[in-house]
Amino acid sequence: MRNRPSPVLYVFCAVLAVVVLAPFAWLAISSISPSNELTAGALWPDHPTLERYRDIFTSSSGGDNVAGTFRVAMLNSLIVASCTTVISLVVGSLGGYAFARLRFRFRRTTLFAFLAIYMLPPIALVIPLYLAMANLQLLDTKLGLIVTYCSIVTPFCLWTMSNFYLSLPIELEDAARVDGCSRLGALLRVVLPLARPGIVATAMFGFLLAWDEFLYSLIFTSTTNAKTIPVAIAEFTGKFSSDFGLVAAGGVLAALPPVLLALLFQRYIVSGLTAGSVKG
């Protein structure tokens, strides 16, 4: 007979859920609270309003209208994060397979060099990256941010995918090679379908890295042409006052895409993380 989980486990999970979800719930409540009730600290507004969300989605994006600017920044973030994830995932999937299966000189050294680049603090790379973007005339462009973010996300994808490939049995690839597949054919027909959980998990975390990045976007952008969500939210705070309700509304909208992706691909993410941690 299967043992039932202890009631203590249910209590612990309930407390953990409250601790994790309470800040997001307070963020959502603050976003629909009028300014006077928000500053009064009411737990639930007497007169909820969706005015801030309406301003974000309907107001113009020109001038000093931070609500309209945020809408443009959401689109910029989606384009930059998606393109960065696709490019880094393609490079990471192919490069990670090479590091996991091929044997060549300085293989581990090269992989650790990529990891060392990923571990460098962003502030240490700001000046050389800024000069490079300026020379290439990529400042204040989405392409410049994509190139910059790829330098962060690609090493992460390489390291994660190489570890995941090591957890897959090599005998399946050998069988495909015996049946006439080339190495690339075995990768496309056998390895990548098996690596789907690892690919989804890597894509998810790579997207989050690009979606939440603040420092490079703050320094490399100056107009709405390429400004991203973290910078747009920071601009909700004025010199003499702050619209905390608008900040909360922006925070809710900024959190929705990662949350929805996590819910849609939860099964792949969990299996990808657990399988990729077997070997390394």
Q: What does it look like?
A:
The protein is mostly helical and 280 residues long. The chain contains 14 helices and no strands. 75% of the residues lie in helices and 0% in strands.
Q: Based on DSSP secondary structure assignment, what is the total number of beta strands?
A: 0
Strand residues, percent? under 5%
- Counted by DSSP, the helix tally is 14
Radius of gyration: 23 Å
**Which regions contain 5 or more consecutive residues with pLDDT less than 50?**
276-280
Q: What portion of residues is helical?
A: over 70%
- Could you state the order of secondary-structure elements as H and E? HHHHHHHHHHHHHH
N/C terminus separation: 37 Å
| Global geometry | globular
Could you give a short account of the major beta sheet?
none
- What structural class do the secondary elements suggest? mainly alpha
> Mean pLDDT score, rounded?
84
